[in-house]
Queue: 3 jobs
Job 1
Amino acid sequence: MTQRKIHQFSNGVKVYDDHLIPVQRERYNRLNVHEAEEEQIFIDLIHAIPAEGCFVNIGAAIGYYPLLAKLLAPTLSIYAIEPLQRHRKFFDENIILNGFSPADFIIYKEPIASSDGTAMFVDNGYGSKVIFANKQNDRLSSSIKSFLKTLLQSGIRKRENASKPVPTKTITLDSLMSRISRPVDLVQMDVQGLEADILQGASHSSRTGKIRAFLIGTHGRKNHQKCADILEKYRYVIEFAEDDPKEQPDGIIVASKGAPMLTQRQKVTASAVKSWQCEPRR
């Protein structure tokens, strides 16, 4: 039996190479982390969370950030949201590959959206997305075309066997917080342009400060600004904002309420990436 090839990132996270797509392999050949500018920011945020704290990752895909968080902070409670069944299977495989137990992660399959209800889910691999339909089918068709155009522009290609949109149950971030039923130190999301919608469905959690901080991968400058405006409305302090990073396709926003999460920040360079040492919290 042929042994499956394993890709190990510079930070120690391992994934099966057959989980990756060509554009990712090309990017990792240059800088061997998933998102170069976001990597050190993420590490700093995880280190700022109490040892018994709580981290929520929305859009977990094959598990890169939840796995990295567990490597850095083994006692952290980690919740991951991934609607695509194929990626949840890959995530499960990578949990075992990295020496963890499935019990170390709580994984939800419902997409997080602006409202509790039903939406359409498009399976397009790493570019999968929830699209809200209205009464006019042409509006839905237009939304899907716009979505696929955005994927092409960001370097994620439409899969040849991409599925037709299918109905799926959605929940809000407020509803997820009710399930978790404890304060969350960090919510990270990468949701292909639905960032502002998710924030709009987190009004109670944001207003009450049950979510201490956000790390958001933004898609497009207008959406980036909209997210910042929503967060500031709920009295979050924008600690870091970059709408067009050099080494990754997504923008970045870090926002916190209360004590700052980031004490020292600088733009990531290739030399900095190569020198990162990701040691678990003692």
Note: DSSP finds ten helices and twelve strands in the chain.
Job 2
Amino acid sequence: MKDLLAYLRVVLNGRDEIALRRVLNYPARQIGEAALEKIENAANMNKKTLYDAVCDAGSLGLFAGAADGCGTFVSIINDARTALASGQPSVQIARALAETVGLHRDILEGSPSNAQSARRWGNVESLFRVFERHDARMADNRARPSSAT
């Protein structure tokens, strides 16, 4: 669930370096420590955000796998931002992100027992329900006529 929240934080704020560092290589995208160091150096030298440097990864001299991984990451973030800008419900965006990064599969494969994987996925589903309630409240607020006072 923390990974999904980190993705959403990056979607909302590309300057959130803590969230970015958490999910840049999740799932594994061949962006190791050496690649991250090059990206950080480029960001610092060019006075850019880390996210901006990730967007420019193709020009940083990274090996092909890391550059492709950065491109995939940026594409995921841009797709979610586009969905957000088009007014898609937040629950749809969160579910699409979870699906795109293979969160459910990762939870199933990474849990030592079926009970633990069910509990962990249940936590993600609880987050989806929070977004559903938020979306419903937003729709209700839009449907209510504003009162002039």
Note: Residues 114-143 form the longest helix (30 residues).
Job 3
Amino acid sequence: MRDDARRFGWPKVLYRAVMGKCERFLQLYRISSRALAVDATFEPTVADVRIATEQELRVAVQEMPKQLTMEFVDGAMARGDACLAAFLDGRMVAFSWRSYSLAPHTHGIWVRFNPSYRYGYKSFTLPEYRGRHLLDLRRGDPYCRSRGAERTIGFIASHNLESLQRSARISNVFIGYAGYLRLFGRFWFFRTRRVRQTGFEFFVR
């Protein structure tokens, strides 16, 4: 904890400890957004980063069965979602899904948002490739713009300090909070005003 405090400061570290105790019944997320790049110049990378084909996803299901199933892939593609992936020597080593309408979250909860936004979800990198920044998520921006999106929309748990730090590095801008309480077998959803303007919300489908 002292190491984390030197990195993030004691207030944030103590907040994370408290929220970790509450997450069984309370989820609070920071919502962020950024404009999708029109014609960006990206740093060189050793990986081939692009939208994965259906055949490549079927291969990935066999190689990463704990992370991808054909049921998930078929459902995502039926909704029009796309998978931005990083390949090394033809092998998928990292991926992140893009949605343009609605997407699953957890515990039967889904998210939806205005069609001018692109939402990213279900990201994963093989353990042996983590820390190398192979999957620059901005490389998918031109494709997302071709689908009619103009901005991103996404959320990170308010006590996930490492992910919040990474999000800030790619110029994501904080716009508000959203989340839910889970009490008496029901979900109680909430969101702040600026988040409501984007159409972003959690809901039970």
Note: The CA atoms of residues 120 and 188 lie 23 Å apart.
